[in-house]
Amino acid sequence: MACLAWNVRGLGNKDTVRALRNLCFKYKTDIVFLSETKQKKGYLEKIRTKFKMDNAFYVDPVGIAGGLALWWKSDVKLSVLYHDNNTIDSIISINGEDDWYGTFIYAPPYEREKQEFWERIGSLRSDINTKWCIMGDTNTVTSPNKKYRGLPFDHNNVKWYHEFLERSLLVEIQSKGGEFTWSNQRSEEEEICEKLDRVLSSLEWGFLFPKAIVVVDIAIASDHAPIILLANGLLKKTKKDFKFESRWILENECSEIVKQEWKPTEQRSHKGTFESTFAELELNSGSESRNFW
Description:
Helix content is about 25%, strand content about 25%. It has helices at about 15-25, 40-50, 110-120, 160-170, 205-210, 255-260, 275-285, and strands spanning about 1-5, 30-35, 55-60, 70, 75-85, 85-95, 100-105, 130-135, 145-150, 170, 175, 180-185, 195, 195-200, 215, 225-230. The strands form three sheets. It has a seven-stranded mixed β-sheet with strand order 3-4-2-1-16-15-11, covered by helices on one side. Helix 3 runs parallel beside helix 4 (about 160-170). The longest helix is centred in the first third of the chain and has 14 residues, at about 15-25.
């Protein structure tokens, strides 16, 4: 299962749509959450159908600000339980597996609104012993090492966020990739970077997906980087089976190289893999008519 969350800062730009399409193809996303779409349902539906996402739920922007979109494929069973201008809360099951709660957020950037927001998110689950995952733009710098330059870190600005985590018993899922998820996109001398986008989960959700990891991809066409939750961990690259070509034995060097490679490691004068060994055979053959690969 792959879930993508991205503050796109407006989806009216062709470059943003192209970048989103590439991300959906790259990660084979099952669920896509977009914040700050700045577009209404009619326009977003045209994009969704091109991306072959089967279902959708929208929160229209207020004027030209905000806007949320949640897309999911047919093998995802998803029901929206609650929504507002900053939140889409849902219950999810994929391929008939256990149900879990998925809350997709765009936290308000203004400090005066953050207390109410995190208290409202906390009130969504009365039982802390539940399978719950939250992902999106938290608009919160959680510690001094989660920012680069800019105003000094203010502990008061994260008070409500930390209190929410403690009450709800949620933790941040480990991320891989970029250290920060937002940049002011200025020149190197004036650049400011912060980690604002993240995925949180309960212990019970972690038991359901113990290999879960978050990938921070490259920020393209937005000042935010997209984050991708891979619930079953990173995809492993499969190694190709080694195949021995019988014609290799016709090479004069073949016997000596194989004997050398099969010696114990400490006795080797030539170290390498079978692939590098036979690549060397090819180079030493001196004949273009014997292309071993």
